[in-house]
Amino acid sequence: MTARDRNRWALALAGWLIGPVCWAIATQAGQILPYADCRAQWPWSLPVPLAGAALSAASAWLAWRSLASRRGGTRRGDAAFALVASLGAMLGLLLALAMLLQAIGPMVLTGCER
Amino acid sequence: MSSDARPRGLRDHQLDDAAGAEALERTWRTPSGWRGFFTTVDHKIIGRRYIVTAFIFLALGGILGLVMRLQLAWPEARYLDPDLYNQIFTMHGSNMMFLFAVPVMEAMGVYLVPLMVGTRNIAFPRLNAFSYWIYLAGGLLLWISFALGMAPDVGWFAYVPLSGPQYGAGKRADIWAQMITFTELSALAVAVEIVVTVLKQRAPGMSLDRMPLFVWTMLVTAFVIILAMPAIMIASTSLILDRLVGTHFFNPAEGGDVLLWQHLFWFFGHPEVYIIFLPAVGMISTILATFSRRPVFGYEPMVLALVGTALLAFGLWVHHMFTTGLPRVAEGFFTASSMAIAVPSGLQIFCWIVTLWYGRPVYRTPLLYVLAFFFTFIIGGMTGVMVASVPLDTQLHDTYFVVAHFHYVLIGGAVFPLLGAVHYWFPKITGRMPSERLGRWSVALTFIGFNLTFFPMHLLGLQGMTRRIYTYQAEMGWGGLNLFVSLSALVLAAGFLVFFVNLGRAARHGEPAGDNPWGAPTLEWATASPPPPYNFAMIPVVRSAHPLWDDEEVLPVASGLRVDRRELLVTRVTDARPEARESSPRNSIWPFWSAVATTIMLISSIFTPWAVVWGAVPIAIALTFWFWPRGMPEEES
Q1: What is the rounded average pLDDT for all residues in chain B?
Q2: How large is the ipTM?
Q3: Given an 8 Å threshold on Cβ–Cβ distance, is A80 in contact with B209?
């Protein structure tokens, strides 16, 4: 595998890694930060999912770019690569959507509600 | 020819078809009689055993369900006392989730995955044998305790403090916790086998984009198992430690945390729903493609949906804990994930509908089960979105609405596809065709019986009937609906009875099936029905995602594997390019003895912690014999 190939694979896998990691962090932060929200009367739990959504969307774009650079390939490995890259792109978008939905809670609640 | 006189290094291409098959048969066969019964490592025999055992547990659990319905048919009935009722609903739930649903889905993978990826046995076949014996031991532990009147009575999720040392007297909760250890150990072993089989043993040419969707679902499910199951094993072990040696993991008075149990349990428990559902997705996709006579629409979105669902499944667990007093913002995060998971699920449903729409559907029994799935699962999915909403869940928590919801999801979403899948692959497993007429009767009875049984439970829940009550007063006004539900349960049971009778009759007297009776496209149909011990005389080479449709005349094959020892082809993860020839272990009695030793240690450790120390000795001895070199050809590098 050449260095160029390795870079493409790294970009293709970005959606597989960055999105899930951001989402896991946002989900954990969503359990921890509401107590701080309530004490400080400021939505600390809001920026985490928003930043995660942005990063996840960016990783989806990177994966999509790596896919575009491989289009038209005829080798057998190209089709498998295309599947991995396009799945990475779609996964990044799906998790970005999940984090945007998570951000709604801190927008409308104070963190003190039980 | 004696084994000593046989030439070493004999390859398949050096023999004609008949001689090659004979040599492979000699190398891969399981001896008949008791010796073969206890020593086999053939994935087909073990898979079949798993499936039959799981269906026996289903039947037993179903009988318990009927007994509960008898008790609830009338107000203030006294057929069961409260203690026995507690045991029965605990047994029903634990049995169905841990002894039927998860194992049967894995069992389908154990049987089918090696055939679908075109290899000769599952990876780590001795571990596979071990996993079955451990699973059986866990099931026997639970059911023997029930027969002795000391079955768990703490519900299938065994919340503390009810199951803790303060309130859970005797050994009932310990039996539940140790049953968990047995079944999860077994499940983890199978998951590891499936991951390695799928990633490293695929037929040459079966790149990731050509893998059958069922294989994708089993791969994703195996990863979910590997990530989810340790949480419940840690939880159940901590519970036993609290009860046996006086630790305080779940005792708030000593710095423990009661909610920790719920977090650990549901971190496993919610993904478990998808451990059960995702294989069903693969079954539906396989059946739909075959009977619509076209590939499933949207291969990539379908795989995305699998992976996305598996990931999001790990962010939903708190929606089982909405009434525990967590901050509402925190709960909102889990509502968000619960809503987001509807996206991949919906994507799958639309792909399947388009497949049917653009196909030429042939409405045979397996497809009818899939249609039954559509109706019931969509209702279950919609009520799932309802209870993912905090305000509604606060009202409906622990009512029969939730009972109705999860039966719609689990029976509609997994059992209907499973029944269809068993019907679909039955000709491959037995070589005989089940009756279409009885098949249609079983679909009709189970579908009608199921909906008449469980839909009214939504109404009972909305009327305030809570779960787990052993009786109710006539003034509550629930009597009429409960009687209707109980009578409908008989229709559902009749549907299952017809299903079992059909398969039982077909196994003995069914029409011979032939290799590919449904005209299916995947590799398991490229070999005989039932498959020979070595699965394929020559390893197939895959050139498309639907090899039996696109290469119908002659399936290309790879040659060069030895026939005088058990040998497999190892291929690359992404494009399945051949990398190496690898040996596969022979039959052995030691997985069985290792499972016996592990069982003795685990059961004894309910009574004394020293059992872990002394029980480790026989396990170590059994494992030593398991791995001890015996100079077999399989041990050559």
Answers
A1: 94
A2: 0.88
A3: yes
Q: Residue type at B253?
A: A
Distance in angstroms (rounded) separating the CA atoms of residues A89 and A92: 5
Same-domain pairing of B494 and B364: yes
pLDDT at B2: 43
Last residue of a domain, one of B545, B564, B585: B585
Q: Does B463 share its domain with B608?
A: no
DSSP state for residue B98 in the 8-state scheme:
I
The verdict on B176 and B282 lying in the same domain is yes
Closest-CA residue of B relative to A104 is B332
Give the three-class secondary structure for B524: helix
Q: What percent of chain B has pLDDT over 90?
A: 89
Domain ranges of chain A: 3-108
Q: Inter-chain contact A80–B207, Cβ cutoff 8 Å? A: yes
- Cis bond leading into B82, ω under 30°? no
The answer to whether the CB atoms of A87 and B307 lie below 8 A apart is yes
Which DSSP state fits B11?
B
Does B502 share its domain with B603? no
Residue type, B552: E
Tally of domains in chain B: 2
List of E strands, A6-110: none
Candidates B259, B322, B333, partner chain A, best to mutate (most A CBs within 10 A): B333
On chain A, the residues whose CB falls within 8 A of the CB of B304 are: 87, 90-91, 94
Do B600 and B510 reside in the same domain of the chain?
A: no
**pLDDT digit string (tens) for B533-557?**
999 999 999 999 999 999 867 889 9
Is A40 near chain B, with CB under 8 Å? no
Do residues B614 and B506 both lie within one domain? no
Burial B337-349 (b: 16+ CB within 10 A, else e): bbbbbbbbbebbb
The pLDDT value given to residue B637: 64
pLDDT of residue B111: 98
Q: Locate B307 and state its tokens.
A: 């992976």
User: Residue B3's pLDDT is what?
Assistant: 45
pLDDT at position B10 over 80: yes
* B362 three-state secondary structure: coil
pLDDT value of residue B499: 98
B559: containing domain: 43-585
- Chain B nearest-CA residue for A29: B330
Report yes or no on B51 lying in a domain: yes
* Whether the predicted pLDDT of B6 surpasses 80: no
The verdict on B184 and B318 lying in the same domain is yes
CB contact under 8 A, B208 and A80: yes
pLDDT tens digits, B582-615: 999 999 999 999 999 999 999 999 999 999 999 9
Residue B1 pLDDT:
38
